[in-house]
Amino acid sequence: MKQTFYILTFLLLTSCGQSKSNQTSTTVSDTIVATNNVVRTDTVGLKETFNEEDLPVNEFLTIRLKPIRANFKRINSITNWTSIDTKELSESTEGGEAKFYYQKGQLKKIVTRHYGETFQLLTEYYLLNGQLSFVFEKRHKYNRPLYYDTTAMKENNDTEAFNIDKSEIIEDRSYFENGKLLHQINNQDCGSPFADEYLLEEQKRIITYFDKLIGQKKKK
Q: What pTM did the predictor assign?
């Protein structure tokens, strides 16, 4: 799949049971934009993980996942980074950025943000012993595009305008061991393990983009 369409694939997941949109906190920017006498929010920010544990939802691979989860907790609790480098990204319609977090000269974490008219994607990559260990993807899927105000709603005979409270949070947690995707959890899939074939596709997708980020950083 072409990398330019990589983000859009995230938005095709289906829901299992009730919506899980309230599981991740969001903050709305204080900045607002007035367009055609309509005031709307310009950006919606997903929070980076801080000082949080990754609690298992079932007993699957608990022992093998334990060091991955411990590393996730340790890194996301760091408050004083030696350095943080920022790079602009241009793969989505509204742009984005990547932040590279270093501790004593070693890369420990990468956080990327991609902004679109209908979504925002926050991805956190955690390294363990120099290898990719854990990836936390948080996708904020808007109910309507950001610019879709009440006027647009009426013009299109629609029943909804953009409303952040009606948006949806989709989360994927991917666990890597020695360069291989060991396990993945989605907050809408009821907790069942994914098929090996699917995990191989996800492994390729995630590692391909992770390697691209590392390559872009080295070119700087």
A: 0.78
